[in-house]
Amino acid sequence: MFLVRIILPFAVLAAPQASDAHGAEPDMRRARDGNIAIQEELEAARRAATVEAYDLFIARHPDHALAQVAREERRRLLDKRNSHKS
Q1: Is residue 25 a contact partner of residue 19, using CB atoms and an 8 Å limit?
Q2: What is the reported pLDDT for 3?
């Protein structure tokens, strides 16, 4: 009984903290600014320089202010492609 009183409090202190289903500690950092992630997606579409990449960006973020920028860049890309066909 004496050992239980001494060991039990230490066992509680040594117990693992709450974790997710994979055993990882929860990340308590603040959420990332979504606008930064969207800007990075637009940059990725620019690097890909394909109509499909711009289409994906526009489909994912149709109401975001950068969607209009993507639409304009997509149009210019198509115009450039069409001018090379002539």
Answers
A1: yes
A2: 46
